[in-house]
Every structure is written in structure tokens, then in C-alpha cells.
Amino acid sequence: MTEEKTILPGTLEVRNISKAFPNVQALDDVSLDIRPGEILAFVGENGAGKSTLLKIINGDYRPDAGTISIDGESLSFSNPKQAHEAGIRVIYQEPEIVPGVDVPENIWVGELPNRFGLIDRRQLNEKTKTRLKEYGFEDILPIDLMGDQLSSAQRQLVEIMRALKKGVRVLALDEPTSSLTGEEVDRLFTLVRRLRDEGVAIIYVSHRINEIKRLCDRIAILRDGCLVAVKPASEMTQTEIVTLMVGRNLSDVFQRQPAGTDQEALRVENLYSNWHDGVSFQINAGEVVGFSGLVGAGRSELAKVIFGEFPLDDGQIFLTGEKVTIHRPDDAIAKGIGFAPEDRKREGLILVRSVLENTSIAILRQLSRFHIVRKGMERNIVDEFVEKLQIRTPSLDQEVGKLSGGNQQKVVLSRWLAAKPKVLILDEPTRGIDVGAKAEIYRLVDELANAGLAIMFISSELPEILGLSDRIYVMQNGRITGELSGADASEEAILELAMVDNLVAPQFGAPTNFEG
Amino acid sequence: MNKEMIEQPITSKKSKVSKKNGSIIKRIISAIGVDNLSLIIALVVLVLFITVVSGWFGFTSGDKFFTWQNLMNSVAQAIVIVGLLAIGETVVIIAGGLDISVGSVASIGSVVSASVLIGVGTFGSITFLSNSVVIAVLAGMLAGVMAGIINGLIITTLRVNPIIATLGTLAAFAGIAFLLAPDGKPVGVMTQPQFTWLAQGRFFKDMSIPPLNGSNWTGIPVLTVILVIVAIIVHFIMSYTDFGRAIYAVGGNDTAARLAGINLTRVRIMMYMLSGGIAGLAGVLLTARTTSGNPINGTGLELQAITAVFLGGAATDGGKGTVMGTFLAVILVGVLNNGMNLLGFNTFVQRVALGFLLVAAVAISQWRQARTERTRTRIAN
Question: Is residue A347 part of a domain?
Fold first, then answer.
């Protein structure tokens, strides 16, 4: 067993790696060294390229250009297995665990010890126990648990144990602490430091700057697919890190002139749900109010709770001053709320149906007399919005699935404009669409607000949230951690509120609810 | 600045729309639907095969196809029951569901209508209902609607997969049909000529239409007229009402439909009620045709109905399909059965053919979906 653990220290050299996806350059000429006996942090905003880089290192993606080598030996992976064989292991947030088998089998999957063709249970359990004791996890990870009984923390441990069973040379951890409690985090850090001291090169990806400062030796900062800095952690302050992550030129983004009224459109008081912990805010008529925060902060879920798609546990919702009860999305629509969801294809559109049907769906009741759709009226209304929003489609009867992303999003928007809501919730309305269409959507949002609509604008892109919002709420872990407006609103201020983790362990509703 | 450039495609779109109304052939095609064109071609090929090609191989019985007797009695009348079930099923399949229980629902409708008409059994003994053809027909349909409500509630409130749910109710409703019949025995309606007229009556019998291949004009069966009327009503519902739009939306993407304000539960229960009501009517007509309210009247019909829907171009994932397509597919299946009869294939061969036809219909439907999926990704990238 001793030779299994022998580690051959080696420097992972990433040279000139580039990778492009449709509409986006995910990585642009990135070069860096990941050295044995060192913990290197990857930090950056959502979409800065951290995950893409990890996936390239792990063999999930092939780079468009550039090379990866360990100690001068060039590597080229076409799948994760080859990366594993070279001693590289990436531990993702959601490791793959076989649900129906216990911990030892999950750890040794693929190389179970056997005798006469049968699994040697005794040797397997023995091996696993020794290994767990060695790293001090024997009480956290009881070996008789089945895969589907494991918590997120335990799943990650299983994945780490898998990585350690073969001589691992490079170990990458992607947001490992996002679902761990304080004590679990401490144990994980102990393990990571120990592996570092044994000569493993460690990559640590996290949004939590405090943790990074505590754990890591060097920090690599990515922004828009470029590596902007690699420095020893001791030489950087938190503010410096945030500034380097952001540092973008704001002038090229749409800049809206605030035009809010003092007429209340939507007010939410003390909203509690599975994802939220006392959220209160207000949006006035004519206002664009941005909701910023990291992925998983609970913004999309907030929209869905308000819209009646997800259950509300407690709290009150007021529309133009009146308390409303919303059970289902159709209640919300009847009361004057529109909602363009984040996942356009899965939640926003009926891809196999026409532009016409997708646009008029929310106003069918108004369009119908004795349940018969007045088709002439329908065509006129839809035609008007197709023209107003400049939706490029060969005809109103074109299947929506055959339009480009930007035009699809405009169909969703025209649906809600036709419904004439008082409050419009836009969840990541510019995701995955090209620059030109983005600009058109910014202009439209601006116009709509100026016409008196209250807009709840959820976006992970800081420049657009800053450019378009009259006020900004920042969320973290299901709570609003701050409100910014005017001169206070800057990328640094938002990131500070969204990331700098000075909260107690997350108080999400009973986690059993979503982990089943 | 680039406003004109953007407006260009919009104006060209308008000219395209107006061009579409240009030629008469194009207008006819767009009324039938491009997807349905292949069904018509298949029908023509099939008829040619039965009447002409089979003659080359020495089958002479194909000559009998174009006779009024064969066309009206063996084709137009024979397709009615399966046709009705298939039209109800079309609505459910377009909405992304499935109703396997239609055959058993028809059995219930058959027993209930006969009991009410004759005044026997569980429902028949309720005296104020008895002895009216209209009430018997309505009772059979109502029984079907009730069965549909049960299907709908199981699928929506208990969240049981529609295939499993209606497979269960297929068995359960078959049992109920027996329980409703007095002593589980068929109820004869031979003595009710007004009721059996539904199956035996002929419209336009007196019109002077010349004989066809030596066979005299028979008139149009009442059953066929009922099928056409139901088809037109359901086509209207699907194309012109808010409910029809909701059916297509739910079948295309139920999450998106809900987030656009469609009440999924209500739509689903209503569509199973519609499918159940039509199946109940099919049961009533089965009673009229077989002159008895028999609890096994509907057994096994669901397979033919589902086959016709998929053959008619409905997507297995839902969101696509037309009543017109199903109607053409029903004719196609009817002509196929008739042709096999005329050419002397035995019933076992016919069953094999029907089974494989279902598989082929679904395969074609899947292939069509895969093709549109490909074009969609090509555009997205």
C-alpha cells in the first residue's frame, strides 16, 4: 500500500491556453505554473474562465490552442480518465457518487480488491478505514453509509479519497466549502495543507476571499478569460483582489438615467422560503432595480417565489400598496406581474410552437371571447410587438426554436409587454445573446421603465447591472446584504457585499428539502 | 442609424406572407398542412396497390375496392369507432400525455347507454332516465367524462405518470364496465330501432347517384357523419380556442406554459374529460352497431387509436399534431385493413401488420423530431 501513496512531485505547466465558445472567448492565452507543495487560488467573477480552465486541466474540454505539461512532459487529454492517469484530479462541487453502494465501494470504484472474482469485503473495509483514519476523517465519513445518504461534504470527501488512492500530483478543488459547516471547513483545510506538505500541487477555486487569504500561498486572478495577475497571497489585500477581478471599462456599457417615481409598485416584506431568510425590498413604478449576487445567492429563486412558482413560507407581498396572495404563476400574471425566466429554452419558451403563439400565450384570456381566440386581433397585437422589438423572423408562424437567442429573448419580452404588467421581473435577460441584441434589450428596458413599468432586473453581469439599475440590492445566501445607489454603486462595492464572507454558517432552510 | 437595415427583413416578411396567398395549390396545401401531404400520398399509393398492383400478381378481389358497398360499409363505417377514439387521443397526445384507457371507457359508455335505454342495471333502474335515445346517448358520454375526470385527477393530483395511470385505469374501467352491466351480462338493444338507427341509418339514400362497379349507391352511414362532425368540432377546439392553444403549449413545454400563466391541472383534467367523453360516445355507437351494451365492446381498441394518432404526425414529446392528420391516418389504417381483407390476408396477419405499423409510426415521428432538433441546433450555433 505504501507505493500507492508515493507522490511524484511535478510542476503542472499551463502554456498559452485559449478556448472559445459561441459568443464568448472563455480563455485567452492563459499561462501559469502550478507548483508542487503549493496551494494556488483561482479567483474571478462568474464567467471569468475559472471553470473552463479546470475543465481543460481535467480533460473535459480540449483547448483551442496551447499546451499542458508536467515537468516538461507534454500532456494531451481527450477525456478525464487520461488526466486521472497522469495524476491530475479535479474535484467538482457535485462529485459523481454511485447512490446504491456504500462508502468503500464508492471510493475504490473501478479497482475493487477481489478474491476468486468476488469482492473482498474485509480487505476493502480495512483499506478504507486505515485511509480515513490516516487523514482524520473516520468519524465524519462512516463507511457503512450508502452513496445517496451522504451529505455534500461527505460526497466531496469520497471524491478526495478517490483522488488520493492513486499517486495524485495535481489536485483541484472547485468551491469545496460552499456547502460545508465551519468545522468541516477547518478539517478540509487541515487535509489540504497536509497534502500540500506531501508535495501535491493544489488548485483551490473559491468565491470566498477570506478563506483564500487564510489557506492559499499564491493567487491567480482571472478576468474575462485572461489571467490578470498571479501573486503571493501575502502581498495582496482583499480590496486589491476585488479591484483586479473587476477592473473593467464601464464607459462602453449602456448608461441609464434614473427615472423612478415614488409610487410603490412591488413591496416584499420579510419573505421566508426554502431559499430565503427574511428578504424585504421595494420597487417603485418607473424604476429599474438591479439584483446582484453570486450564482446561488437566491435571486432567481426570489423571483420564482414572488411569481408563485416556488412556495412562500412566510412574508407579505404588496402590489401597488395592496397585499396580494399568489398561489400560482397565473395568479401573479392576473395581478400584473410578468416574469422572463433565466433559462429561456427550458422555462421561457415553447420552442416547437410559433412566434405568434409564444407571444400571445399570456393574454389568451383577453384575446378570447367565449373561449374563441380572436385571431385577427391576435395577429395585429403580435405584429405590433414584433415590429417594435425588431424581432427578426420570416413570419409570425415561424417556430421559436428556429430563431437566434437574441430574437428568442425578444419573443419572451414581447409576451410580457403584450400582457401590460405593472411589475416585470427579468432574470438574466441577456445571457447567451450577442452584443447587438444585448444593446437592444438594454434600450428596451430603459424605455419600459421610463413608461412607468417597475422592473426587477436580475443579472450576474456587473457592468450591465451598474449601467441599467437605478438602485441595486445585493444578495448573499438567501438574504439581502446591502442596497446601493448612485455614487455608492460600484463593482467593488457590489462584490464586497456579495462575496466577502463575514456571515455565520449559511442558514438555509432544512437542507433535506432539496437533497432528498 | 442602422434602423433601416433592421427594418428590411420585416418588410420582406410581409411580402412573403402576401405571396403565400398567391396560388390555389399552395393554399390547398397549407389548408391540409404540409405534414399531412405525406399521408395523402401514402393513401393514394395504398389504394393503387390494392386496386392495380395486386391485379398484376393475380389478385382479382382488388376490383371490389371501388364499389359503393365496400367504400361506404366496409371503409367509411368501419373506421368510425377507432376514428372517434383516435380524435380524443390526439388531444391528449398533443398535450404530452397518453390515454391508454379509452377502450375500457368505451366499454363503460356502451354498457351505461344500453342500461339507461332499456331501464336495467345500476343506472337503468333510475326511472326518470329511462326510455329516451337522447338521454341514453348523453348518459354514455357522461360516463366517459366521469372516467376522464378520474384519469385527470390521478395524473394531476397524485402525479402518476400518464402511461402508468391510464394502464391502471384501463384494467379498472374494464372491471367497472362488467360491474355496471346487470350480472355482468350484455344488455341487448335490438328492440330499440330508434337507437340502432345510429349505426344502421343512412343519409342521402334516395339521391340518384350512379352505381360504382356494378354496386348501387348505399347512402352515407350516420356513423360516418357523426365521426366527421366530432372531427370538425375537435379541430375547431384545437385551432380556434384558448383551450386548444393551452393544449399545444402544455405539450410543447409544460414548465414554460405554467410560467406563462397556463393552469396545468385544469388543462390536463379538461383534456382527459374530452378524451373520455368522446370515448363514451364511441361506446354508445358500439352499442348501436353490435345491438348490445357489452362490457367487452371496447377491448383492445386503444392500440389502433394510438397508432392512428402517431401515424397522423403527432410528436411523441407532445406539442405537435393535428386532428386532420389523425383523421387521414384513421382512413389510412381503415383502407389498409380493408385491403388486407379484400386480398385475403387472415386476421392474425392483420394484427401483426397493425402492431408493426404503430412502431413504424412512432419511428417516423421520432425521426421527424430529430430532424427539427438538428436544424434548430444548426441555427443556434
Answer: no
**Distance to chain A for B308, nearest Cα, Å:** 22
Which residues, 6+ apart, have CB-to-CB distance to A245 below 8 Å? A43, A44, A45, A48, A221, A223, A495
Query: Cα A256 vs. chain centroid, distance in angstroms?
Result: 26
As a whole number, mean pLDDT of residues A77-101 equals: 83
A39 & A175 share domain: yes
- State the total domains in chain A: 3
- Asked if A453 reaches chain B (Cβ–Cβ under 8 Å), the answer is no
C-alpha–C-alpha distance, residues A362 and A353, integer Å:
14
What are the residue ranges spanned by the domains of chain B? 75-301
Instruction: For residue B81, give how far its alpha carbon lies from the nearest alpha carbon of chain A (Å).
Output: 28
A56 in the same domain as A163: yes
| Cβ <8 Å between B259 and A371 | no
Taking the CA of residue B264 and the nearest CA in chain A, the distance in Å comes to 10
Residues B89-138 have pLDDT tens digits of 999 999 999 999 999 999 999 999 999 888 876 666 665 555 688 989 99
Q: Please choose, from the candidates A245, A248, A249, A225, the residue with its C-alpha nearest in 3D space to the C-alpha of residue A237.
A: A245
Q: Which of A369, A385, A418 is the last residue of a domain?
A: A418
The reported pTM is: 0.75
Which of the four pLDDT bands, split at 50, 70 and 90, describes residue A505?
Answer: very low
- Whether A463 and A439 map to the same domain: the answer is yes
By Cβ distance, the residue of A352, A373, A401 closest to B245 is A373
| Domain assignment of residue A380, given as a range | 354-418
Q: Which of A415, A453, A445, A447 is nearest to A265 (CA)?
A: A453
